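Entry for the shared binder. Reason: the reviewer on the internal report wants the predicted structure included alongside the sequence.
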Amino acid sequence: MTSSSAFPSPSASPLAPYGWDDAWAEAFAPHLSRGLLPARVIRVDRGQCDVATADGVLRADTAFVTPHDPMKVVCTGDWVAVDPAGRPRYVRECLPRRTAFVRSTSSKRSEGQILAANVDHAVVAVSLAVELDLGRVERFLALAWESGAQPVVVLTKADLVPAPATLGHLVQDVEAAAPGVPVLTVSAATGEGLDVLAAVLSGGTAVLLGQSGAGKSTLANALLGEDAMEVQATRDMDGKGRHTTTTRNLLVLPGGGVLIDTPGLRGVGLWDAETGVGQVFAEIEDLAADCRFQDCAHLAEPGCAVLDAVDSGALPGRRLDSYRKLIRENQWIVAKTDARLRAEIRRDWKRKGAEGRAAMEAKRGRR
């Protein structure tokens, strides 16, 4: 039987630049004994994928690992076991993922879509060429925290902000919406901040996320030092661009680490991201611990520490509105596949409706 020692040590392997390490080598050992080759998926396209192996980039078919569950399909960033030879080659196994960035699909079915697998950093690109949408930043961050990756917010096109004071205020606004998350400003045009970002990303795998026009492909090219990704101009009216990136591509960075570039995302639906939402709004979760009622909804309940913080100015009302919105959305998406939760939500709606009617009747009685 072939042991894992028959394969080069992780540090000496040609796969090391793609993130191959001791833990992946250990996980792959059973497949190595079957004569299969380790590979990392760098691109997926209609049932086939490009994979990086010790022998170079190969094309492989995913027919043997295409389940009915969309959460288990082969994704960019996966580590897989492929046939050593043959035409076509086949992906035979997919190694268990360490992390996965998942959003809900735009369809009415209860499905999630995996955007990237085995990611260490989730880089949320936000353009400074248009008005900041802090609610969207918080949405991206909730999914990033839920994935198991470390979020990083990158404010792109910093050269388009004329006044340093204005840039400082914008950074402060984002930092307030992203507690515990590094917020970096960069300019691909001038090179400002690129060295800091490259250093952050050098230690693992990063996925680049954001809307069309956020400057993701331009940023990817700047980090790569070459025009690997196609770039198109954004519209002057709203700063949005067309989807120049149509697939998710895994790219090796010259300074170390790998980057998964993704198409611009118009919709970023939550997918069972309760923990992620809690981390984005950690200050609200901390305040809620002091509410009089354990199940306080922070709407109009007496003794609500969250509402008291809003009244005193300690908590911005915008943050609470955004928190409520994401909590409701997350409950709705989870309830689509959880009958018990659906029943609980219906009971809660009825209880709140009854309380509202009782309050109105009491008000009429006082008149």
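Summary line for the report: The mean pLDDT is 82.
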